[in-house]
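User: Need the bound-state model for 2-(butylsulfanyl)adenosine:
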Amino acid sequence: MPVADLLQELESLLEKLDTWNHQYYVLDQPTVPDAEYDRAMQRLIALETQHPQWLRTDSPSQRVGAKPLAQFGQVTHDVPMLSLDNAFNDQDMQNFNRRLLDRLAEISGPLEFACEPKLDGIAVSLLYRSGVLQRGATRGDGATGEDITQNVRTIRSIPLRLRGTGYPDVLEVRGEIYMPKAGFEQLNNRARERGEKLFVNPRNAAAGSLRQLDPRITAERPLEMCCYSVGLVEGGSLPDRQARVLERLQDWGFRINSQSAVVRGVEACNEYYQSLSERRDSLPYDIDGIVFKVNEFQLQEQLGFVSRAPRWAIARKFPAQEEMTRLLDVEFQVGRTGVITPVARLEPVFVGGVTVSNATLHNRDEVDRLDVRIGDTVIVRRAGDVIPQVVSVVLEHRVPSFQRVSFPQHCPVCQSAVEREEGEAALRCMGGLVCAAQQKAAIKHFASRRALNVEGLGDKLVEQLVDEGLVGNVAELYTLSKAHLLELDRMGEKSADNLLAALQDSKLTTLPRFIFALGIREVGEATALSLARHFGSWPVLSAASERQLLEVDDVGPIVADHLRQFFDSLSSLEMVRLLCDAGVSWPDIECLPQQNQPLLGQTWVVTGKLETLGRDDAKAHLQALGAKVAGTVSMKTTCVVAGPGAGSKLAKAEALGVEVVDEPSFLALLLAQGIEV
Ligand code: IVH
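Assistant: Bound-state model below.
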């Protein structure tokens, strides 16, 4: 090929890769399959290797590759990077607004505010000359920061070269580098598997990833950048309002926050705050508040600064998701399968919107990792519906007399021996069904909504029944009489009748529910459904060999082993017999041989609220029909089931042209497969 043609091919590859990259990492709208992107990149690298003189620093092939540094250089910020004043309630916002109006005497109507989620990450500055990224720096103390150019280059949502036209000769863009929640979870899961140190929260993970001297490490971390302002601008001009500047930055290839809005007046700011705080947990990244900025630059200039913060902006903080408190004690809870979980008893603390006095410590590995002692000051985190976690210990507050956590040698409930199985982090009570804690947990599970659904048999009542010696296993539930029930505290005639009726109703069930209700280790709802559909009846299932069990879609060697142990245990079989004798029954179902899985090879995503079915059931059905159920929408997604409240996943599916069905259509589809919900 003539050199001119090769050069042209190179130009076109650069352009294509830049565009695809922008679509994928900035707009979240991939347009080509990964394989095509990879092919173009390989071709680009081949051309650049054959013709090194064509290699440009802003080529997409040059994101990673720089050598590790000995240390970071220093950077002076020409325009200082300031911080923000905080507001904690509506009154603080009113006061902020009043101060603004007092200073802007000529303004009479409500002020226009740009409202932006305050991402919880690391502030950075990016310097572009003639549209090419020259330097990336941390905020540092606001006047000088560290040169992290090599590391910011690895972040795919940061353009190496600006897109479009009309940008100033010198443009300093500022924003936040952060780690999305999903990426953080993955990173920590991987670290946990390798026995490495975990990151406390996404912000620390982002900071740690940027502080790497070796950019190859940074490149592997799921970092993103979202822009919120400009610093130095030379040889060009920008729009006259904050929100419009963000739109321009978006045109030039930056990611900006899609939740940002412009509102008029402080009441509207407060409404925006309320509305976003309700959606806070469903956002894919952590935010710790909202930044409100007077939108017009001319007014910003009039208002100016006080010490290190602008008068024209304020950060309204959300209730903290992390707080300090004291660890009073560690107690041990025994779960359904005997797993003993250490639970931290804490001095009550208000965190993430609720008062927390207990937090899980997971297992012995976690206690060792935290090296927590009784009496320690600890940091507790509660984000969204997630159970509260102890994330770290404040070592400065430790006193030598604080005692280590000692794990029990015997079950704290039934005194049976405790064992730790090979390769498992958990301690386990070996008492089985003689252990009252396991009895209670097994009965609660059996009666729960997704199992035999005994209405009105709540946790408290189960505890009473076991403590009073009325019930010791699930079969004994069906031997309860009204006279028995009336012996219980606070149990009236009517409640007793209702409970007996609910027990009666629960007897007619389905095979998948029955299998799930037995509480066999590692057999969740989806596995129970697969087993039921595969074997069709209890006798066939319970006679299945390990090899036959392994033929079922989501059954691996561990699950097969637990199943075989259950079927080989005389006491388990006796329990099933007693249940059947008591009248528990279900219709056998038609077997679905593996090859009859109509959704095999497809990938589905379930999002939003499914009112009839619930998301878990929807997933279980999809899996039983052969589909893979994924957490994120991509080009590979076959179909998205979207209920009310579906957000970014639905938007992405629509942008990608992925098929979307609502719950009624999904139910119709299930019905067509013989699944009646
Ligand atoms: S504006 C002069 N906008 O909050 C204004 N800051 O306490 C300076 N932050 O270090 C910042 N999201 O890292 C601004 N939309 C946003 C922001 C934001 C997060 C961080 C920023 C800064 C800190 C200010």
